[in-house]
UniProtKB/TrEMBL annotation, chain A:
Residues 104-293 form the ABC transmembrane type-1 domain. This is ABC transporter permease. It is found in: Cell membrane. It is a multi-pass membrane protein. The chain crosses the membrane at residues 37-59, 106-127, 139-160, 166-182, 271-292. Gene3D superfamilies: MetI-like. Belongs to the binding-protein-dependent transport system permease family.
Length: 306, 305
C-alpha cells in the first residue's frame, strides 16, 4: 500500500496497516488506552512485587498464627466482619489478608525461578539449532514437537508423581516442561538474524562463531526474550497455583494462593470469601504481567501491532 | 497431496516414538524406579522381585526395548489400586474426557470466532477494545478458580445447575463453559489477527473499490478465506484443550481420565499416570496430524509448497 492512498490521519499510526483502518487509522484515544493498559499492568506488577518484598511489614498479622476464638470471620464490610481482619480469617483463625500478602512470595518466586530455568534450557537450544541448522536443528525441533504433544499440566503432574511434592520440585517441573516455547521462538529469530548483513559482516572480518553468537545475535534477541519471559512467568504462576491447588505444590501451612484456594473450596457452600480472594489475587497478578508483556511487545516491536 | 499425507503421517509416527521415549524416561528420573512402582509397605523380597521382573538391573537401551515391546501391546502394567490393567482403566475413562473436550471446544468456537471476526472488522473501535479486553482477562483467569466461582454462583446460590459429577446434560454445562474459557481467548486473538491479515489482501481492496457492500466483503470474500486459518487454529489448540480438560475435570470431579490421574497420583499408582500421559499425548499428535491434512486439503498451496 502506498502512502498517497492512505488518509492523512493514519500516517501517524504505527506498524503495518490493514485497510480496515481506512476509516481513520488508530484514533488517539485508542492509542492512549493501550499505553494506559501497559501502565496499569506495570502498576499491578509493582504492587505485587512490593507485597512480596515487604510482606513482613505490609501484613497486619502473622500469617501462620491462628487465633482459635477468631475463626472464619467474614470480611470487614460484611455484617459480622471485624475491622481488625480486613479480608476476614480462615478456618484456623489466621488473618486472610496477611496470608494473601505472604502468598505473593510463593507465586512470584515459583513463576520467576521456573521461567529462568526454562530460559536456561530453551534459549541455548534455540540459538544453536537456529544458528547451526542441519541435524542438530532437526533433533531440537523434534524434541520441541514431542514436548508440545504432552498436555503441559499433565506432564508436570506425572513428574511430580515421581519426584514427590515440594517447592524445589515444583520449580524443576515447571521449568523443565515449559522450555519449548523459548526454543521455538528463539530458533526462528536466530534463523533470520543469521542471514542478515551484520552477521555476514562479522563473519567476514573473521569473527569466531562463539563471538558472533554472543556479541551479535544474542543482543538482537533481547526484546523477544523479554516478551516471551513475561508470558511464561504469568503462565507458570497459573500452573503453580493449580498444582498447589491439587496439593502437589507448596505444602501447608506455607501460604500459597493455590493452596489457600484448595482449603477454601471446602467451605465454599456458605463462606464464599475463602475461595474468592486467593483467586482474585492470582487473576490480578497474571493480568498485570500479561498487560505489561503486551505493552512491551507493542513498544519493542512496532512491526507487530496486534 | 498423497506424498504430503505420507510425509506427515511419517512425521507423526516419529513424534509418537518421541512420546514413548519421554514416557519411558518419566519413571527413570526417580533415584530408584522400584520405589515409585511399589507401595511403601513392600518387603525387600518384593522389591528385588520387581527389579528383576522389570529389568531395572539391565542397561538402559535393553530396558527401553523391553518397554517398547510392552507398550506396543498396550501393556503399562496393572493398577496397584484396582488390580486391573492401567490401559483398560484409561480407555474406560476416555469417552468422558473426549465428550467434555468436544463440548468445551464447541462453545469456545461459537463464542470466539464471531468475536474475533467482529474485532478485526471493527478494528480500533470500542467493539474491538471490548473484545480484546475479554480475551486479555480470559487469558489471565485461573480456570480452576473460574470453575469454583461458577459453582458458587450457579450451583450454590442460584441452585440451577449441579455442583459436580456427571450423569445428565445439566452436569456438562459448567465444566464445558469452564473449559471453553481456557480456549476462547486465544482462539479469539488468533482469529482476529488472521482476519486482519485477510482484510489487508489485495482482493479485499479490489472488492471494496468495486463498490461491493461491506457485508458482502466480510461474508463472501474475507470469511471464506479466513476459514482455512480457523482450521489450523483448532488443530494447534488440541494440546491446550487437553491441558484444560485436566484442570476442569479436577475441579468438577468429572469422571474422565484426569480425575483418575489425580487420584492415582495421591495413591502413588504410577502405571495409571504413565498410561494416561502416553495416551493423551498420542491423541494430541493424531489430532494435530489430522488438522494439518485437513488444512492441506482445503488449501492446495500447502501440500505443493
Amino acid at each position: 500500500m502506498t502512502t498517497e492512498a492512505r488518509p492523512v490521519a493514519s500516517i501517524s499510526a504505527p506498524g503495518r496497516e490493514a485497510p480496515a483502518d481506512v476509516r481513520g487509522g488508530v484514533p488517539l484515544g485508542h492509542r492512549l488506552w493501550r499505553v494506559r493498559y501497559g501502565l496499569i499492568g506495570a502498576f499491578i506488577v509493582l504492587l505485587v512485587l512490593a507485597c512480596a518484598f515487604l510482606a513482613p511489614w505490609a501484613a497486619p498479622h502473622d500469617p501462620y498464627r491462628g487465633v482459635v476464638s477468631r475463626r472464619l470471620i467474614p470480611p470487614a464490610w460484611e455484617a459480622k466482619g471485624s475491622a481488625g481482619n480486613l479480608l476476614g480469617t480462615d478456618q484456623v483463625g489466621r488473618d486472610y489478608l496477611s496470608r494473601i500478602i505472604f502468598g505473593s512470595r510463593i507465586s512470584l518466586a515459583a513463576g520467576f525461578l521456573s521461567t529462568v530455568l526454562a530460559a536456561l534450557i530453551g534459549i541455548p537450544l534455540g540459538v544453536t539449532a537456529g544458528y547451526f541448522g542441519g541435524r542438530w536443528d532437526s533433533f531440537v525441533s523434534f524434541a520441541v514437537n514431542v514436548m508440545l504433544a504432552f498436555p503441559g499440566v499433565l506432564l508436570a503432574l506425572a513428574v511430580i508423581s515421581v519426584l514427590g511434592p515440594s517447592f524445589v520440585n515444583l520449580i524443576l517441573v515447571l521449568g523443565v516442561t515449559s522450555w519449548p516455547l523459548y526454543t521455538r521462538v528463539v530458533r526462528t529469530e536466530v534463523m533470520s538474524c543469521r542471514e542478515q548483513e551484520f552477521t555476514t559482516a562479522a563473519r567476514g572480518i573473521g569473527g569466531t562463531q562463539r563471538r558472533i553468537i554472543l556479541r551479535h545475535i544474542l543482543p538482537n534477541l533481547a526484546s523477544t526474550i523479554l516478551v516471551v519471559s513475561t508470558l511464561e512467568v504469568a503462565h507458570n504462576i497459573l500452573r503453580e497455583a493449580f498444582l498447589s491447588f491439587l496439593g502437589l505444590g507448596v505444602q501447608p501451612p506455607i501460604p500459597s494462593w493455590g493452596g489457600m484456594l484448595s482449603e477454601g473450596r471446602t467451605y465454599m457452600l456458605n463462606l464464599w470469601w475463602l475461595a474468592a480472594f486467593p483467586g482474585i489475587a492470582i487473576f490480578t497478578t497474571t493480568l498485570g504481567i500479561n498487560l505489561l508483556g503486551d505493552a512491551l511487545r507493542d513498544f519493542l516491536d512496532p512491526h507487530q501491532t496486534s | 497431496m498423497r506424498a504430503f499425507i505420507i510425509r506427515r503421517i511419517g512425521q507423526s509416527v516419529l513424534d509418537c516414538l518421541g512420546v514413548a521415549v519421554v514416557t519411558f524416561l518419566l519413571l527413570r528420573i526417580a533415584h530408584d524406579p522400584v520405589y515409585v512402582l511399589l507401595p511403601p509397605e513392600s518387603t525387600q523380597e518384593e522389591i528385588e522381585t520387581l527389579r528383576k521382573a522389570m529389568g531395572f538391573d539391565r542397561p538402559l537401551p535393553v530396558q527401553f526395548a523391553f518397554f517398547m515391546g510392552r507398550l506396543l501391546r498396550g501393556d503399562f502394567g496393572n493398577s496397584f489400586v484396582m488390580a486391573q490393567p492401567a490401559s483398560l482403566l484409561i480407555w474406560e475413562r476416555m469417552p468422558a474426557t473426549l465428550g467434555l473436550s468436544l463440548a468445551g471446544m464447541a462453545i469456545a468456537l461459537i463464542v470466539a470466532i464471531p468475536l474475533g471476526v467482529l474485532a478485526a472488522f471493527r478494528r480500533n473501535t470500542l467493539v474491538d477494545t471490548f473484545c480484546t479486553s475479554f480475551a486479555v482477562s480470559g487469558q489471565a483467569m485461573p480456570i480452576f478458580w473460574f470453575g469454583i466461582m461458577l459453582i458458587i454462583v450457579f450451583a450454590v446460590q442460584l441452585k440451577v445447575l449441579p455442583v459436580s459429577g456427571s450423569g445428565s446434560f445439566l452436569h456438562l454445562v459448567l465444566p464445558a463453559v469452564t473449559l471453553a474459557l481456557n480456549l476462547a481467548p486465544i482462539i479469539m486473538r488468533l482469529t482476529r489477527s488472521r482476519m486482519l491479515d485477510v482484510l489487508s489482501q489485495d482482493y479485499i481492496r479490489t472488492a471494496r473499490s468495486k463498490g461491493v457492500m461491506e457485508r458482502a466483503v466480510l461474508f463472501r470474500h474475507a470469511l471464506r478465506n479466513a476459514a482455512i486459518s480457523v482450521v489450523t487454529i483448532i488443530g494447534l489448540q488440541f494440546g491446550r484443550l487437553m491441558g484444560g480438560a485436566v484442570i476442569t475435570e479436577a475441579v468438577f470431579a468429572w469422571p474422565g481420565v484426569a480425575t483418575l490421574v489425580v487420584s492415582s497420583i495421591y495413591n502413588a499408582d504410577f502405571p495409571v499416570v504413565q498410561a494416561a500421559t502416553f495416551y493423551l499425548a498420542i491423541f494430541i499428535v493424531a489430532a494435530n496430524t489430522l488438522a494439518d491434512i485437513a488444512v492441506a486439503w482445503l488449501d492446495p498451496r500447502i501440500s505443493r509448497g
